[in-house]
Design brief:
By secondary structure, the chain is an alpha/beta fold. The chain folds into 2 domains: 116 residues, Elongation Factor Tu (Ef-tu), domain 3, CATH 2.40.30.10; 167 residues, Nucleotide-binding domain of ferredoxin-NADP reductase (FNR) module (Rossmann fold), CATH 3.40.50. It contains 6 helices and 17 strands. The strands form 3 sheets. Strands 1, 2, 3, 4, 5, 6, 7 and 8 form an 8-stranded antiparallel beta sheet that branches. It has a 7-stranded mixed beta sheet with strand order 12-11-10-9-13-14-17, with helices on both faces. A hairpin with a 2-residue loop joins strand 2 and strand 3. Bound molecules: flavin-adenine dinucleotide (FAD) and FE2/S2 (inorganic) cluster. Flavin-adenine dinucleotide (FAD) binds next to strand 5, strand 7 and helix 2.
Length: 295
């Protein structure tokens, strides 16, 4: 494994983007659901520093098509026998160029990663943290659930943990075959509720139905963290507004550099007094206050 620390200072943007570039071999690579793969790589520095909601840019070493890396959220972090951070896992769904190519690689093949990137989810205390995930949007939720319930620690310096009394994952997929990592989530969360569009598992309908039902019966302080297709995040944002529940969304805006240079990843974010400005999802995000996103 080769690893290099990189720091970019910018006068215009106050974001020294400090990231680790790692060239390493795939340690484990397996199909965990329909078209969905879990890849684990040994990368101690990434594992030591990454917090829930952050992501890595990933490329296949020595391959120039696609040339540009793709952002993948940290799914899990693994420690060695002495408890030191050792490896990270990502989970991805085969969609286009990069994910198709990556799925054809096996343990021992070389990949390049840089990160950890982005801001991560907030650690504000709450009685009930409701995670809402659609499609492959469940990927940043596993570490978030574990940190919120005090089951795992992340970051350097270590982030606060145990900031939620209860964590519910509401997870929506097209069909049962696409549900990925259910056993992991059942271990990490207090409760997992599933919705499938075809009714093949759990509630027959949308993940937003699950969220509405929880909020309708809740009488405690709640917060929502959401990731998935944009229309679903917009719908969740609307529901959170109706119930006056704080909501964070993790945007999946396509990215090129991942480190704040190219501006391919900008999203419209509300500023003071009704104005909006572009912000980089890779630096100021990917996690934003849902109320501030111009959908
Ligand atoms: C912060 C962040 C975290 C992410 N985490 C994950 C993750 O954990 N797992 C995962 O599978 N993917 C994740 N993604 C999306 C991922 O970066 C790739 O965009 C996706 O895997 C498709 O790459 P591809 O090369 O296979 O498809 P491409 O060949 O790039 O595109 C295939 C099709 O998908 C569309 N598309 C590409 N990217 C996106 C996007 N971001 N949103 C909507 N449509 C898109 C294209 O327009 C095209 O129609 C994340 C994105 C961001 C920004
Ligand atoms: S991806 Fe280049 S600035 Fe965000």
């Amino acid at each position: 494994m080769n690893s290099m620390n990189v720091e970019l200072e910018s006068k215009e943007f106050p974001c020294p983007t400090r990231f680790e570039f790692v060239s390493t071999c795939i340690a484990l690579h397996r199909c965990i659901a329909e078209d969905t793969w879990r890849m684990t790589v040994e990368a101690p520095e990434l594992a030591r520093r990454a917090v829930p909601g952050q992501f890595f840019m990933v490329r296949i070493a020595g391959q120039n098509d696609p040339l540009i890396g793709r952002a993948l959220a940290m799914y899990d972090m693994h420690r060695d026998k002495s408890g030191q951070p050792l490896a990270v896992s990502v989970v991805y769904t085969v969609k286009g160029k990069f994910t198709t190519a990556l799925s054809q690689h096996v343990a021992g093949d070389r990949v390049e990663l840089w990160g950890p990137l982005g801001n991560g989810f907030s650690t504000q205390p709450t009685d009930h943290l409701i995670l809402v995930a659609g499609g492959v949007g469940q990927t940043p939720m596993l570490t978030l659930a574990a940190a919120a319930l005090g089951k795992a620690q992340f970051g350097d310096p270590v982030q606060p943990t145990g900031y939620a009394k209860r964590v519910t994952l509401c997870y929506g997929a097209r069909t049962k075959a696409y549900l990925a990592g259910l056993a992991d989530f059942e271990k990490a969360c207090t409760e997992v509720r599933i919705a499938t569009e075809d009714g093949s598992f759990g509630h027959h309908g949308r993940v937003t139905d699950l969220l509405k039902a929880i909020l309708a019966e809740s009488n405690v302080d709640c917060r929502i963290a959401c990731c998935g297709p944009e229309p679903m995040m917009e719908a969740v944002s609307e529901i959170s507004k109706v119930h006056a529940v704080p909501c964070e969304v993790s945007l999946e805006t396509p990215m090129a550099c991942g480190i704040g240079i190219c501006f391919t990843c900008v999203a419209k974010i509300k500023q003071m007094e009704g104005q909006w400005d572009y912000q980089r999802t890779c630096v100021e995000g990917p996690v934003f206050d849902a109320e501030k996103v111009v959908w």
